[in-house]
Write a structure and sequence with these properties.
The structure holds 2 protein chains of 2 kinds. Chain A is mostly beta strands. In chain A, 5% of the residues lie in helices and 42% in strands. The relative contact order of chain A is 0.16. By secondary structure, chain B is of the alpha+beta class. The chains are: A mainly beta, B alpha+beta.
């Protein structure tokens, strides 16, 4: 089973590794793909796997320094301005989605380099909201 | 006495799983259901199951499901003689209920006056106090620290027009009160258009136990047992059951009597729910009355062997409640709500397209859902996708059936709480029925096991010849080594 070798980077025959291989786990197995993300249901659990290093493709941009919208919604309140120093965990803004307010917190200590949204801005999931440095 | 006025065609003024549920209740009552839908719901399940459907407008609820004028016009245009509001949207809008009745249609719900009497939390508390129903100490005079001193901490700030956990904050220190009031007011104004707030004592670790009541137009009001809804997250119910593991036959009788008194004090007709907080010593306190069918009504239906929606329709038509209603539950039922939310990331609501959706079945299993594979879960509506309900001769049989059913259910494309609720149902506290309203916040839920080799193999196969890349030449087989490596996102 060459495919396993490819996705895990291992060398060898998966059919002999721990007795697993072609047979799906109890409860069946389902998979569905959406772009670079594959959803797999196995033994009652759902896993989301992202293909991160396509051959010849570019490395994904590093967004770990910035505050990214976890879901689409509307910015209800902004508590920081450009140039502010913020501590990891500080609430930077409130995002309203599905009738609830969700506080979005700083992923790390830093200084607000750029504020990309204002109160009332509609944002998409994954959109960068606050750039930190 | 009221003359029976048969209902032939009923407008289902809702969407999602509750619209599907009402359609099924119509079938049981021999009534033809008509659906309404927004532009986002053209192919939704409730639309496909109804006998007819009317487009209301754009996806935004304010321009579709919440637009009372459009909904009423849809009922008239399709020759409906009744309207069922489900829950949420217009269900507790007394002005809409009144408009339905003034148009000569039957409102499948309580009298508009009862909705008004119980809809605002402050007057309803006063009404309950006068009717002799025990009420938690509280105030609507929110003047900061003084409030905290008068009621005692911890306290909870709530929107008077609220419900469903929106516009609600628990305050444990007096200094937190001003922020809590500001946040509640913002949410309440946004969600209900009314920023009126009140505060009451917050009982630590109580159970949430609510009584299903039903009144007919002949003046009979009955209690149909309790539901325990203690498993909540941020005041949103997650797992409910009936009967409550904490309620003895004697306590059930006393809860039922208090609930019937509450319903009578409100002039109640049709299905309603009286919510109580139950303390460890068996004392209970009125929380609020919900003047509609509850999300969790199926556990009562399964434990008591009833079809509450069909009963609502018959009672609204003027029929009396059946003389032979059961006096006690004949089974145990537990329900888990399936939400599009990410338990691994603060339970934030999730959106996306359902790439796969498979519902469980089998003895004692019922699924109330409003979605199908291919549907988009959008930001416009509530993130609850479905409810899975298990019935058993005992609580443990129902629990085991529910665990197995949740493990069979497949939802791909949108992250859900399916695995989380299954693991909650396996914790020792839940197995033992030792529940309270803050249990979920402190419960240690076992982590999701890491993916097996088979999961990576399945992921790899999705990038092989079976699923060509966009732009790939037809018939070409992509090099499997193009698949690269995978990062586990959850």
């Amino acid at each position: 089973m060459r495919l396993r070798d490819l996705v895990t980077g291992a060398v060898g025959d998966a059919g002999e590794a721990g007795g697993r291989g072609a047979s799906p786990p109890a409860g069946g197995l389902r998979a569905a793909r959406d772009g670079n993300v594959v959803w797999v249901f196995a033994a009652g659990e759902t896993y989301r796997l992202e293909r991160v290093v396509p051959r010849g493709g570019a490395e994904p941009a590093d967004l770990s320094h910035d505050l990214v919208a976890p879901m689409p919604g509307k910015v209800r309140a902004v508590f920081v301005a450009e140039g502010d120093s913020v501590a990891k965990g500080a609430t930077l803004l409130l995002l309203e989605a599905m009738k609830m307010e969700h506080p979005l917190r700083a992923p790390r200590d830093g200084v607000v380099r750029r504020l990309r949204v204002a109160e009332g801005t509609m944002v998409a999931a994954g959109e960068r909201l606050v750039e930190l440095e | 006495m009221t003359a029976v006025r048969p209902i032939r065609r009923l407008l289902v003024a809702n969407r999602g799983e509750i619209a599907v549920r009402v359609v099924r209740g119509c079938r049981a009552a021999g009534v033809s259901p008509v659906a309404v839908f927004s532009e986002a719901d053209r192919t939704a399940r409730h639309v496909r199951l109804a006998d007819g459907a009317v487009l209301l407008g754009p996806a935004a609820a304010a321009q579709s499901y919440l637009d009372a004028g459009k909904v009423l016009a849809a009922a008239k245009a399709t020759g409906c003689d009744a309207v069922h509001p489900g829950y949420g949207f217009l269900a507790e809008n007394a002005a809409f209920a009144r408009a339905v009745e003034e148009a000569g249609l039957v409102w499948v719900g309580p009298p508009p006056g009862a909705i008004e009497a119980m809809g605002l939390k402050i007057p309803s508390r006063e009404r309950m106090r006068s009717a002799g129903v025990p009420v938690v100490p509280g105030t609507h005079d929110l003047d900061g620290v003084e409030t905290a001193r008068r009621i005692g901490l911890p306290l909870v700030v709530k929107a008077s027009a609220g419900g469903g956990g929106k516009g609600m904050r628990v305050v444990r220190a007096a200094a937190e009160l001003p922020d809590a009031i500001a946040a509640c007011r913002r949410e309440a104004e946004a969600a209900f258009g009314d920023g009126t707030l009140y505060a009451e004592r917050y009982l630590d670790r109580p159970r949430h136990v609510e009584v299903q009541v039903f009144g007919d137009r002949q003046g009979r009001v009955v209690a149909l047992g309790e539901r325990e809804c203690s498993l909540q997250r941020r005041h949103q119910k997650v797992i409910e059951e009936s009967p409550s593991p904490a309620v003895t036959p004697d306590l059930r009788r006393r809860l039922g009597e208090a609930a019937v008194s509450a319903a009578r004090a409100a002039g109640y007709v049709n299905a309603g729910t009286v919510e109580f907080l139950l303390a460890a010593d068996g004392s209970f306190w009125f929380l609020e009355m919900n003047t509609r069918l509850q999300v969790e009504h199926p556990v009562t239906e399964e434990a008591w062997g009833l079809d509450l929606v069909a009963l609502q329709i018959r009672v609204a038509a003027g029929e009396p409640l059946p003389a032979d209603l059961p006096g006690r539950p004949s089974a145990h039922a537990i329900e888990a709500r399936v939400y599009a939310e990410d338990p691994g990331n603060g339970f934030l609501p999730q959106t996306g397209r359902l790439l796969a959706w498979e519902e469980p079945s089998g003895p004692g299993i019922r699924v109330d859902s409003g979605v199908a594979a291919g549907d988009d879960v959008s930001v416009h509506y509530d993130p609850m996708l479905a409810k899975v309900i298990a019935r058993g001769a005992t609580r443990e049989e129902a629990r085991r059936r529910l665990v197995a059913a949740l493990g069979e259910m497949v939802a791909l494309g949108v992250t859900t709480n399916l695995s989380y609720v299954r693991r909650v149902l396996e914790t020792p506290q839940v197995v033992a029925g030792e529940l309270d309203t803050s249990l979920l916040e402190r419960l240690e839920v076992p982590p999701v096991p890491p993916p097996s080799e088979a999961v990576f193999e399945a992921a790899g196969r999705e990038f092989s010849a079976r699923v060509p890349e966009a732009g790939a030449r037809p018939g070409s087989i992509p090099d499997p080594f193009e698949a690269g490596e995978f990062r586990i996102l959850r």
